[in-house]
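Late entry, evening session. Most of the bench is empty. Finally got around to the prediction I had been postponing all week. Sequence below, unchanged from the version circulated by S.P.
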Amino acid sequence: MCIICRGEDLTGITKLDISGCSSVTTIPHIEGLQRLYCLNCSLLTEISHIEGLQTLDCYNCISLTKIPHIEG
């Protein structure tokens, strides 16, 4: 289980690495998140719009169907 699945507080997080999590299905909006690594998250289907996101690595997320427009 990752930090999202465990329901931990995501306030103030700028880098999130949930690579390999086999439980997460969506990435919520996280204010201030700049880097998101979710490699091999087999159930991940959606990433919400995250303003200021600079890095997104979702290699081998085979169920991912929705990625928001990322400015820049």
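Two things to note before I forget:
The chain has no helices and five strands.
The first strand starts at residue 15 and ends at 17.
Will write this up properly tomorrow.
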